[in-house]
Amino acid sequence: MTAEARPRLRADARRNRDRIIATATQAFADDGPDVPMEEIARLAGVGVGTLYRRFPDREALVVAVVRDSLATTLARARAAADSDAAAAADPATKADPATADPAAAEGRAWDALVNSLNPSHELRLTMRLTSLFSPTTAAAVRADPAITRIRREYAETLDALVLAAQAEGSLRPDVGSGDVAHLLSLAAYGLSRAPDATAEIAFDRARAIILDGLRAHPTAPLPGHPLTTTDLASE
Amino acid sequence: MTAEARPRLRADARRNRDRIIATATQAFADDGPDVPMEEIARLAGVGVGTLYRRFPDREALVVAVVRDSLATTLARARAAADSDAAAAADPATKADPATADPAAAEGRAWDALVNSLNPSHELRLTMRLTSLFSPTTAAAVRADPAITRIRREYAETLDALVLAAQAEGSLRPDVGSGDVAHLLSLAAYGLSRAPDATAEIAFDRARAIILDGLRAHPTAPLPGHPLTTTDLASE
Amino acid sequence: MTAEARPRLRADARRNRDRIIATATQAFADDGPDVPMEEIARLAGVGVGTLYRRFPDREALVVAVVRDSLATTLARARAAADSDAAAAADPATKADPATADPAAAEGRAWDALVNSLNPSHELRLTMRLTSLFSPTTAAAVRADPAITRIRREYAETLDALVLAAQAEGSLRPDVGSGDVAHLLSLAAYGLSRAPDATAEIAFDRARAIILDGLRAHPTAPLPGHPLTTTDLASE
Amino acid sequence: MTAEARPRLRADARRNRDRIIATATQAFADDGPDVPMEEIARLAGVGVGTLYRRFPDREALVVAVVRDSLATTLARARAAADSDAAAAADPATKADPATADPAAAEGRAWDALVNSLNPSHELRLTMRLTSLFSPTTAAAVRADPAITRIRREYAETLDALVLAAQAEGSLRPDVGSGDVAHLLSLAAYGLSRAPDATAEIAFDRARAIILDGLRAHPTAPLPGHPLTTTDLASE
DNA sequence: CATGAATGAGGCTTCATTCAT
DNA sequence: GATGAATGAAGCCTCATTCAT
């Protein structure tokens, strides 16, 4: 997934690496950013040495976890954008607006936008993590080239979705992809804490309300100007 | 500020205690939840011994900080509610809807609700803190009787504001005080991170969009049922 | 002994500090430069925490040990120089060269030089240490201002002794204080390894032979030019 | 190079083994006695596994390195002794003292002694190594039969050189081969540290002074008795 | 009471050594 | 045989907490 000089990992090493990242993601989410490395190793069923062979220090592990999670999120958003494009190319879909489901009347682009923002379990955990790590670690995360690239590509994908939704008139024109990303990351963050059904509902409701706020029926002018993703780069 | 048995601390001791809490609040906000106790003591200009005399252990200090911050927030929300009640009792205010400021057309209760949710510096810190502490410490915070009481009183105050806004027709009827608290805490949380102007704007815009979503113009039924604050107690 | 802002240490702290340095000096000599910090602490009868409170890391401890040892050595060399000066001022001492002990016929300055080079137990340990530490640590030692100052003062003292001995004709004129320091440090180094009587003898003999070589009876011109202490600064 | 049961290693394995020893010798000299085994393996271009196949543990590698180095040194000292013997047997050499180079007036045996003590690069490394390893490792080195044998043979060679030089009157009679070995090892040790020109000069000068001290012009009786190599066995 | 010195458990990381591929 | 992945013991250092001054 990265462009590093890591041509091929031995099968078992690869499996270990993947399991460590998955375990670490979960452990960080469960116990906070300070979970002992030994605990992570234990949960992953490996010795500390193996953990450190793969990730030179805690920071490297965190970066890998975030990188992995963001890559998944990007793939998801892209899939949503692509399926939207495919649907648009297929005249059979939503052929006649008049006969369409009124609840889905917002249009294809809107649906694509909403789908792309449905946070995966992984992303939720990452949302939480990125806000919990120490300033030093956060800086390391932002400095990672692979993460930077993913963020940029994600921003581009989201930009396209936002513009399409605004073109079809379903998304209010005075918001930018930065606003959208910010709001949805907030919603996802709220979800990431409690793992139970209530949190699930609270998230769904919050998301619905936020989406209502994003629809093209502004009741009052928004302050400032539409935020682009770049505006939030320092987030 | 709290309802504890406060056996009349000597003036200077009292000052010490207050300074420690203020310092700790700032230190937690600046450097994260792991600031060493010695660092806090140093910043407060006292020895560790003094710190430990006031707060038997780190958890007690955290609890005190959160308690203090929540108490301030509650007082602020109450003041907003009270001024609303006072305004309602005063026929001179907003006497004639026709002459009222159109931008404020949502009604007095709506304004009161919005005001009560304008996060103070203190609240922002608290938002950040409560989401950053370890699960263990978070549990200790929730278990604190004084904090529980404050949360309950805060919920009651918010309930009243929500009901009033729904009664006047400005707040959509399918939300509860839990939804409102959840959404606004999310917005405030987003703010608490970066202290720069961009974050300020992002927060203002996010809040505006959320408020639009909360207004009484539901475009689609919300999933589930209106959340009460109790629903979110485990958050 | 240093010019740091350490005005006064609490009596017990001071005692601990001294004991730690003494213990560390011995431990380094006995077990090499890698003695675990915990071992040093244990031998000194304190907890690791105390050790680290006084010396932020291993390097700081090493620097302190070397500094302490060099200071002792400097004091010793100075005492030798001073007693020589005092003797010279006292007409009763060695009043008549003709009646002096033939074995001591070399003169007062020579005796002073020899005395100043009688390595203390501490210095022997230090000799061994400075050559055993890692390049990084060695660099830290050389970078220490207090150590730099002591080395400079020591060089000045030795310079005076060397010049005096050459003036009285007992020390061969084609050597410098750098040569003298180098040779004697070699002898002392050899001594520092084995702690038994044999080593003691070997050292005494080696020193006697070296001193013979240093006497004013050069049988062959020495290569290069007389070394000054500065020439050996990188040693 | 050693007298072990060397069951005819395959050519490439043999090459591996030699490269590992050479690499390790250099690595120890460059980076100190704590170079990780993996680093040595990497520098030698083999995997750790291969390293451990040849040398069961770190101690075995160190012993092999020292053994190798000492064997080289012994060969050199023997060559010097042999050439001296050959020269002595050849009446053409130094036939007429009157026509001899005055600077070489000390005699053939003296020259042989001096030559045998001219430290090779290998010996310098060994000097450094043997003094840097931990007490435990140093003991293992001394306990190695091959090393013991080499030391013994070296002592015998040196004994012969010393006796010859004393017989011809160039070496003072009150020193033993132990004294000579001790002094020259000290000089060589001093050299092994800094690899620059200053160190070269300092070594040359120190050696010259020491040789002056060793010449047959004792100005004072030496303490103790002439040391044999055995006296220094524990060094 | 205030201070800051002492303690030691606990987390991070390294590396000698073993073992599966 | 060669390789390098896995293991875990051991050392460094931090910091919450206790206690002597």
TrEMBL record, chains A, B, C, D:
Gene3D superfamilies in UniProt: Tetracycline Repressor, domain 2
In this chain, the stretch annotated as Disordered covers 82-102
Q: Which GO terms describe its molecular function?
A: DNA-binding transcription factor activity; transcription cis-regulatory region binding
* Record flagged with keyword DNA-binding: yes
Domain (HTH tetR-type): give its ranges: 14-73
Tell me which UniProt keywords the record has, alphabetically.
DNA-binding, Transcription, Transcription regulation
Q: Which InterPro entries match?
A: Homeodomain-like_sf, HTH-type_TetR-like_transc_reg, HTH_TetR, Tet_transcr_reg_TetR-rel_C_sf, TetR_SbtR-like_C
Q: List the stretches of this chain annotated as a DNA-binding region.
A: 36-55
Give the matching PANTHER family: HTH-TYPE TRANSCRIPTIONAL REGULATOR BETI, HTH-TYPE TRANSCRIPTIONAL REGULATOR RUTR
Protein name in UniProt:
TetR family transcriptional regulator
Upper lineage is: Bacteria, Bacillati, Actinomycetota, Actinomycetes, Frankiales
